[in-house]
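Service request form, structural biology core

Requester: graduate student, group of Dr. S.
Request type: structure prediction, single chain
Budget code: on file
Notes: please return the result as structure tokens.

Sequence provided:
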Amino acid sequence: MKEALAQAQQSLSEGGIPIGSILVYRGQIIGQGYNQRTQKGSAILHAEMDALEQAGRQHALVYSESTLYTTLSPCAMCSGAVLLYQIPRVVIGENQNFMGEENLLRERGVVVDVLQDKECINLMSIFIRGNPELWQEDIGK
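Core staff response, request fulfilled:
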């Protein structure tokens, strides 16, 4: 989670939403990313999507043995990507500031671990308070 949090800090340093993610296969980071909707004017470049993009094309077996770490509970789009690529485990930094599609993931057999990491919680809390309109845009409201 420390590496995902570093990605979140990178996004924040660029004026973006502080959410970070990494994809780990057999103990090695194969993709890392952060929310870049603001920086790149993207409609879909959430942290999880960026980590998958940075991992590049992988064989289905790689995804089926990987774990996705994300600082914040994944939205419907990012959860859909987890399901599409059959990633069996997602580790979430926190879900107090936003509850994504954790139940959907669990219903489809994905192991979901929520850490309630204080650093992840504080980072998002401070950001949301200071940027409510940008946050609402990011979550589709």
